[in-house]
Amino acid sequence: MADSTIDEDAPILAIAVAAELAGMHPQTLRQYDRLGLVIPARTQGGSRRYSLRHVAQLREVAALSADGMSLPAIARIIELEDQVRRLRREVADLEQRLRDEVDQRRGARVFAAGASGSVVTLRHGTRVRRATEVVLWQPRAPRD
């Protein structure tokens, strides 16, 4: 089955459509592109292509501008929001890699009782010394 989620970053909208969705004149979008506020992707022929995220940014620019914020300040806000979005993706990726590593190692832990009765964690592949240690428990993967 195909994934039905919408890619908000896909550059699919022509400038006229993006301007209509953002409630702006296409010339305003061209000006924002020149100023570096909202930079669309380009086709091989050089035409601008906007994504749904660009349209949301254009609406945000309009709202902030209407509140009296300068265009350089708005550009900085957009830059910081993009940085936060990238960092969140990176954190999510690192968290997933950590979960995968923990899941991989979970089945590899084995506990044993030492000669003095203390609990000893054995590494995967470590042999138990039969005279002094007995394997007590090996955790199972959690149930969903």
TrEMBL record:
InterPro entries the UniProt entry points to: DNA-bd_dom_put_sf, MerR-type_HTH_dom, MerR_fam
GO MF annotations, alphabetized: DNA binding; DNA-binding transcription factor activity
Record domain HTH merR-type: where: 15-80
Chain coiled-coil ranges: 77-104
PANTHER family linked to this entry: HTH-TYPE TRANSCRIPTIONAL REGULATOR YFMP, REDOX-CYCLING DRUG-SENSING TRANSCRIPTIONAL ACTIVATOR SOXR
NCBIfam families: HeatShock_HspR (NF047375)
Name the record gives this protein: MerR family transcriptional regulator
Keywords, alphabetical: Coiled coil, DNA-binding, Stress response
Protein's organism: Microbacterium saccharophilum
Keyword Coiled coil among record annotations: yes
Taxonomy, superkingdom: Bacteria
